[in-house]
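Pinned message: reference record for Poly(ADP-ribose) polymerase, catalytic domain, RST domain of plant
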Amino acid sequence: MNQLVQFEAQPSVILEDDDIAKVDYDSEAEADGFANTSRVELFDTKELKVQRLEETSNEYGIVRRSLVGGRRDLGKKVKVVGIHKKKYDWSEMDEARLAVFRVFAAAVASRNGGDANIKYGWYGGSRDEIKEIMMYGFRRFEHRGLQYGRGVHLSAANNPMESVKTSVPDSDGLMHVLLCRVILGRPELVNFGSQRDQPSSMKFDSGVNDISSPTKYVIWEHHMNTHILPVYIISFRIDSLTGMPSIRLPTSPRMGINGLMGRLTNYLSSSKMVVIKKLQHEYHKNKISRPGFIRNLRAIAGDDVLRAIVKGL
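Predicted structure (tokens):
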């Protein structure tokens, strides 16, 4: 059965079963997935034009389950603190953003047999980046998203962990991801390590890492504020990234931590590199352990990037 969520002044949003990872853990795990907070204010709702969802609402439950899905281990480690929904009817500028998205959705649909191929996609970043996107939209960052070409990279709705790993913890240890509506239109395959910044021809609208079962979406920079519509901010804590495959970082002089930092700048945004370099400084000062440094590095850089660097040695 489809999961239906109504939005004021915008079309109804449907989360298909395939878009939400199946939930099969017990009620105890469900309860563990909620952070014990006293409604701590996470964002300035007036500034961002967002509304905090009530934890008892059906909409909150649907969005939360779309993050933790059916993984019992993840459901117990991810502590959702709050969910905010963008209210596009609270300002004229946001109404215009929604109108632009609708116009492009209709245009893409008209040239693709009536189907704009709109999906949900996750985007992880720092708290400041998430705030900026909600207020002004996406912008081009130095070194942004080179893993699959130059553009905005989102993970598929049923693959939220990829965006969780690219989220940057804030000063309170909270992480934040966006759940967005994405116009894919007719996608084409984009290989890992691609340096492209546009589609190979006008007949394609977006990129994916796998045509039959994509887990990553690439929206080219010239479409990043017409083909992506941020809908929710999900704020959460995560105990650890245990349960994911381990990665052995090189320890030889050929590629020490400093060498790794140099290569990471080719893949990550400047905002993420600032956080990583701060962690590196704390590691060298023995303020955090090597396992702790690696755990945080994986959360920020993502395993795909680290594997690519290690394999390239």
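Pinned by admin. Summary line: The radius of gyration is 19 Å.
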